[in-house]
Amino acid sequence: MGVLDRILRAGEGKKLKALQGIVPDIGALEDEYRRLDDDSLKAKTAEFRSRLDRGETLDDLLIEAFAVTREAADRVLGQRHYDVQMMGGAALHFGWVAEMRTGEGKTLVSTLPAYLNGLSGQGVHLVTVNDYLARRDAEWMGQVHRWLGLNVGLVIPGFQTSPAEKRRNYGCDITYGTNNELGFDYLRDNMAGRLEDKVQRGHEFCIVDEVDSILIDEARTPLIISGRVGDAAKLYFRFASIVRTLERDVDYEVEEDKRVVVPLEAGISKVEAALEVDNLYDDVQANLVHQFTVALKAKELYRRDKDYIVQGGEVKIVDEFTGRILDGRRWSEGIHQAVEAKEGVKIKEENQTLATITLQNYFRMYSKLAGMTGTASTEAAELMGTYGLGVVPIPTNRP
To answer: Which pTM value belongs to this model?
Structure first.
């Protein structure tokens, strides 16, 4: 069984020992690669890609690719990866969390799996907690990747001026960015009406820095894109006018104990005629069924001077238990707007959630996820339970 097979099959307690087994193999190539001139070392990238095309795997290339990255970093940055950093890089490649103390060079470690996985051309995302770090790492560590022939992108707020420019950055072999920007770009892609307006190309491999902060502390906080609803006010008034002409028990039924109003076939036909649509329930995009339903509820279930009052041109909710006016409170899901339309007062603009996702759900979309931190052991159970991420404590370079 080879070294890489042993690493993949190692139990939690044996992972560290298995990772240590790759260090001599990488070191054995050091003299050979040091003797190569720049052009010959750079040519390794094309060689590796050709071998991938012929059926070799990224695991097959790990030893050589890490040795190439170490030599390139030494030439370009004047920084040579320590043996323990090689272990950390391998842990990331295999989809684990590398726990490394502050000052042990996590940023340099990330160049190893980023280069190896970047060879596939499917895209590697390196995620940091803020714009400054993403830009710094793209410029600083990106030098190594660019020198070796990979292209490097950066995705932070305000950096790109058009979808095409952002799409080009996502199309790079390696893309640096922040967790929020990647998440919001995913939401914007889901809202995009045309394929050419989408910017992301998939979720293959992601390395998350400060993994405990991003994947645990902030994970359940939703990213939300909201916006004003276009011509909703006109529709509310239109439906308020239409439902005034409809008859209870003929055009709709009311179940007051359940707070439900059910449109009947006769009422649906009258609404379709008034709106000049063939099938009310086909027109999902215009949200007509929802508008119809809330207009009926406003008519039958919300009573003036009991559930609300009209004061100063505004609909104000009355507390059902105390009878007090609840200033500033509004019913949700379009009910308040429907009551405003029923009473003929000005409808306040509706701010609607257009798209939302939690960071937890976003990062779980990646085919392979890995992370770095200085304090992951305390969160190990949650990282494993939520993301299937095992934590490997990497030794310090100086004990």
So the answer is: 0.73
CA 69 – CA 146 distance, rounded (Å): 11
Residue 392 tokens, joined? 């490997």
The whole-number average pLDDT for the span 154-168 is 88
- Residue 205 near residue 125 (C-beta atoms within 8 A): yes
Q: Which candidate, 123, 25, 36, 27, places its Cα nearest to that of 82?
A: 27
Which ranges of 54-124 would DSSP assign to H, the alpha helix? 58-76, 83-93, 106-118
- What is the per-residue pLDDT for 2? 57
Q: Which of 58-67, 129-138, 220-229, 324-333 has the lowest mean pLDDT?
A: 220-229
Give, in degrees to the nearest 5, the angle at Cα 208 between 361 and 17.
115
Between 4 and 318, the more confident residue is 318
Query: CA 99, CA 120: separation in Å to the nearest integer?
Result: 26
| Tens digit of each residue's pLDDT (9 = 90 or more) over 180-198 | 999 999 999 888 767 888 9
Q: What torsion, rounded to 10 degrees, do the Cα atoms 249, 252, 253, 258 define?
A: -160
One-letter amino acid for residue 338 of the chain: A
Q: Which domains does the chain have, with CATH numbers?
A: 3-225+357-393 (3.40.50.300), 232-349 (3.90.1440.10)
Using DSSP's 3-state secondary structure scheme, residue 297 falls into helix
With 0-12 CB in 10 A as exposed, 13-18 as middle and 19+ as buried, what is 276? exposed
Query: Count of H helices and E strands in the chain?
Result: 19, 14
Render 221-288 in DSSP notation, one character per residue. Answer: SEEEEEEE-SSHHHHHHHHHHHHHT--BTTTEEEEGGGTEEEE-HHHHHHHHHHHT-S-GGG-TTTTH
Confidence band of 286 (pLDDT split at 50, 70, 90)? very low
